[in-house]
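I had to read the description of the data format several times before I understood it. For illustration, here is how one protein appears when written out as sequence plus structure tokens:
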Amino acid sequence: MLKDALLKEAYGRLHKAFGPQRWWPGDTPFEIIVGAILTQNTNWKNVERAVTNLKRDGLLSARKLLDVPPARLANLIRSAGYFRVKTKRLRNFLDFFSEHYKGRIAAMMSEDASVLRAKLLGVNGIGPETADSILLYALEKPLFVVDA
């Protein structure tokens, strides 16, 4: 499609002119995904505290987070607001990630962006902006995130 080609050309020009921006904070793609889920309806400072708690307790991996009891996870991410809802959303993603990609970021990265976006949107609690943030910032897929 002409539209797709134009978007890819625009993205390519921006990337060539400015290089990787590393805009989204996070040490790993998985940390960026967790941050994208937790930042829904809150500010980044609150999410940063929640991510720091997870790091401090050595829990910033899919396997470890799946093993954490929901009440403990909710307490660790409390600063992100709506912590009970976000606990469920995070666990929904973790189940999806484990089932479809065996907890491997590389497996997600190898998936076509449009296919992966559709799958992410099928995860309860992940909407278009969160899905696009995951695709762009964590998985380095060439697309734009539209913030409502």
Q: What stands out?
A: The chain has a mean pLDDT of 92. The chain has nine helices and no strands. Residues 9 and 145 are 16 Å apart (CA to CA). The first helix runs from residue 2 to 18.
